[in-house]
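HUMAN:
Could you generate one sequence with tokenized structure?
ASSISTANT:
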Amino acid sequence: MDPAVVLVLCLSCLLLLFLWRQSSGRGKLPPGPTPLPIIGNMLRLNVKDIGKSFTNFSKAYGPVFTVYLGMKPAVVLHGYEVVKEAMIDHGEEFSGRGHFPVIDRINNGLGRWACLLGQSLIRRFTLMTLRNFGMGKRSVEERVQEEARCLVEELRKTEASPCDPTFILSCAPCNMICSIIFQNRFDYNDNHFLKLMEKLHVNVNILSSPWMQIYNNFPALIDYFPATFNTLFNNAAFIKSYILEKAKEHQESLDVNNPRDFIDCFLIKMEQEKNNQLSEFTFEALVVTAFDLFGAGTETISTTLKYALLLLLKHPEVTAKVQEEIDCVIGRHRSPCMQDKSHMPYTDAVIHEVQRYLDLVPTDLPHAVTRDIKFRNYLIPKISDAKIMLAS
């Protein structure tokens, strides 16, 4: 048979399959722009600013609409009110795990999504451990205070001369996460620390690139263009191998009555679950969870700090009021603590305004519904290829 005829037949079959899937599932989903076969609505999305594209769609289709990222539908919830309604009033139904193929490939299906979105035992354990500030004799607050003092000392070394603080602002949260996970912080010039920072920074840039949006919606491309991901996967492997090495060192000196950090807490939980063959608490899960905390916690905090400084420079009148409140409540001779928060409403409001203005993750992480749910007069089904995207 003529290859051209075969190609036409294959494309026709794909088109028919796409139209059938669209007609069978589309009626249950909210309205949205009409998708093209195979590529869906990708041509109508600005991959460099998907949030802006969603804002434009919401003007035409309302705060709840459907877009097709490739052949797969995504229900978008756009705006504060609808996101609040979904995540607060229907939090359990919208707590499912979304798919991020590149991250799933890095973590072998474990990690960030299970830790941050789902209702897994590891997620609950991680949140409980961090919320309790329960890692040995030193709380998370004390670790933050220590790193803040070190950050101030690094800034003082500039002697008030013009400088780019981006690197220092990245080191501080990364070091704080290291302190929580590995017990000890690093000197800002430590070679191991700088290597970890470099690997992490490169991976964040790769994952934030517009092309990554395409790869995540057409995951088959990962197998056809493996060279594109070599750097990403190799850097992740380097960081995880370092975490595994530290975990083994911790295991040799573990004191179950005196956990020093997150790794110790996880190892203790592993020991408690050792007779449970179905336990989620394994060395692999420990490495992936620590890897996610290391990556996600560093970049988000450093970016927020950088934007906060830029906004304070732009609005000196706000800076003056924040400084006045700090001097009045805290003074110049001690570190701030969580108890000060209730006495500093203006500073607290400024911090929240920075986070709102920054819009750090415009579309949030993909969610999925845990069951069929009727939401704002639309039936959102629990199907494996549909995900929920939250947009500000």
In short: Residues 364 and 390 are 6 Å apart (CA to CA). The mean pLDDT is 82.
